[in-house]
TrEMBL record:
InterPro entries: 2Fe-2S-bd (IPR002888), 2Fe-2S-bd_dom_sf (IPR036884), 2Fe-2S_ferredoxin-like_sf (IPR036010), 2Fe-2S_ferredoxin-type (IPR001041), 2Fe2S_fd_BS (IPR006058), Beta-grasp_dom_sf (IPR012675), Diverse_Oxidoreductases (IPR051452). The lineage of its organism: Bacteria, Pseudomonadati, Thermodesulfobacteriota, Desulfomonilia, Desulfomonilales. One of its GO terms (molecular function) is 2 iron, 2 sulfur cluster binding. The keyword Metal-binding applies. SUPFAM superfamilies: 2Fe-2S ferredoxin-like (SSF54292), CO dehydrogenase ISP C-domain like (SSF47741). Keywords: 2Fe-2S, Iron, Iron-sulfur, Metal-binding, Oxidoreductase. Residues 3-79 form the 2Fe-2S ferredoxin-type domain. This is (2Fe-2S)-binding protein. CDD domains: fer2.
């Protein structure tokens, strides 16, 4: 039995007809066409599907879409403004904080949540808070460098 819900994604409201068992990941990718959010393990173990819900990083493969109603959802597509990359995205591009790129959207979204909560984190803090995001290419050193650089670029701003 399908039900209509409204989701606020990247500042826009979307009315969608879904099955009650559909995950937020499925709705973002399949109903809204926001394919930047990746389906990695589909078990909540890799972090590739991380999005922001009311400013906190969540694994969209583990959340039912109906549970996201009334929350502000931000995907990787919602970070840039007016065609300009977000400082976190710029840092990842310039410092090589990505390799194949598959895990990058989830890592960037987690980094955004970290820097919003702790604008000037230590490397150790970033490592601990990013522990749920896996990179098959093992680009962790560049990921941490990119997050630390973004912290400086943002100057304590969100």
């Amino acid at each position: 039995m399908k039900q209509a819900i409204a989701l606020t994604v990247n500042g826009d409201v979307y009315e969608v007809l879904i099955s009650p068992n559909q995950t937020l990941l499925e709705v973002l990718r399949d109903k809204l066409g926001l394919t930047g959010t990746k389906k990695g393990c589909d078990l909540g173990a890799c972090g590739a599907c991380s999005v922001l819900l009311d400013g906190e990083a969540y694994l969209s493969c583990l959340m039912l879409a109906v549970d996201a109603v009334g929350k502000e959802i931000v995907t990787i597509e919602g970070l840039s403004e007016g065609g300009d990359l977000h400082p976190i995205q710029k840092s990842f591009v310039e410092l090589g904080g990505l390799q194949c790129g598959f895990c990058t959207p989830g890592i960037v979204m987690t980094a955004k949540a970290i820097l919003d909560e702790e604008p000037q984190p230590t490397e150790e803090s970033v490592k601990k808070k990013m522990a749920g995001n896996l990179c098959r290419c093992t680009g962790y050193k560049k990921v941490i460098e990119s997050v630390m650089s973004a912290s400086g670029r943002m100057g304590g701003k969100q």
